[in-house]
Specification:
By secondary structure, this protein is mostly helical. Helices cover 72% and strands 0% of the residues. The protein has one domain. It is flat and about 50 Å long.
Length: 210
C-alpha cells in the first residue's frame, strides 16, 4: 500500500466525521477505516500481528465490506439519499473501527498511531492529546484551531458536493489529500524547533509500505 493510499484511509475518516457527524470525532488517534487499513500486509507485518489476530481482523473486514456494500449498492440519487448514505457509512465506520481496534494490543495501537503520524504529518496537531504532549501555547492553540475551522469548512463543502452528485469519492479524497499537504505545512510552521523535533519523535520507526 502506497503512502498516499494510507493517507486516503485516514482522510476518509476525517471527511466522514466532518459531516454530518461531529468534526471532533476525526481527532481520534485511529481515524479512517481500520478494517481496511489492518488488512494490508505491510501494516500487519509492522504491527507484528499474530495469526489469530489476522483471522479475527479478516472476519471483521469481510463483515465490514458486506455491510458497506448494502449501503453503497442502493446507488442514492438525491441529495437527501446521499446524505443519509454518508451518515450510515460514517456510523458503520465508527462501529467497525471499534471492533478492529479491540483486536489490537496496547502496544500495537501505539504503533498504529505512529503510522498515522507519519502519514498525516502536521495534520495530527488537530488531536488534543498530541498538542498536550507538545506543550503548545494558547496562541499556538488558537492558530491551530483556526486551521481546523478551515479544514472542517473545506471537508463540509466537499461532502455537500459529494452528496449533490457533483464529485465522486475519488475526487473528494484527492481534494482532501491536496488540502492536507498544504495545511500540514502551515501547521508545522506554528511549532517551535523543539516541538517539531518532538513531533518527529512521535512518529517512531519509519514505516515502509510494500
Amino acid at each position: 500500500m502506497k503512502t498516499n493510499l494510507l493517507a486516503s484511509v485516514f482522510l476518509l475518516g476525517f471527511a466522514m466525521a466532518s459531516s454530518p457527524m461531529r468534526a471532533e470525532d476525526a481527532s481520534s488517534p485511529l481515524p479512517g477505516s481500520l478494517p481496511v487499513l489492518l488488512g494490508n500486509q505491510s501494516v500487519r507485518v509492522d504491527l507484528g500481528l499474530t495469526k489469530n489476530q489476522c483471522s479475527q481482523l479478516d472476519s471483521i473486514r469481510a463483515a465490514y465490506k458486506a455491510d458497506a456494500r448494502l449501503i453503497t449498492s442502493r446507488h442514492p440519487e438525491t441529495a437527501v439519499e446521499r446524505k443519509a448514505a454518508n451518515t450510515a457509512l460514517a456510523e458503520l465506520n465508527s462501529r467497525y473501527n471499534a471492533k478492529a481496534a479491540g483486536v489490537l494490543t496496547a502496544g500495537q495501537k501505539v504503533r498504529l498511531e505512529q503510522i498515522g503520524h507519519q502519514t498525516l504529518g502536521g495534520w495530527m496537531l488537530f488531536q488534543p492529546n498530541v498538542r498536550q504532549k507538545l506543550g503548545v501555547t494558547k496562541s499556538q492553540e488558537s492558530a491551530i484551531d483556526k486551521i481546523r475551522v478551515e479544514a472542517d469548512a473545506f471537508a463540509g463543502k466537499l461532502n455537500r458536493a459529494f452528496e449533490n452528485g457533483e464529485i465522486d469519492l475519488q475526487d473528494r479524497l484527492q481534494s482532501l489529500r491536496e488540502w492536507r499537504i498544504k495545511a500540514s505545512d502551515r501547521l508545522k510552521r506554528i511549532l517551535t524547533p523543539d516541538q517539531k523535533k518532538s513531533l518527529i519523535q512521535m512518529q517512531g520507526e519509519q514505516f515502509k509500505p510494500a
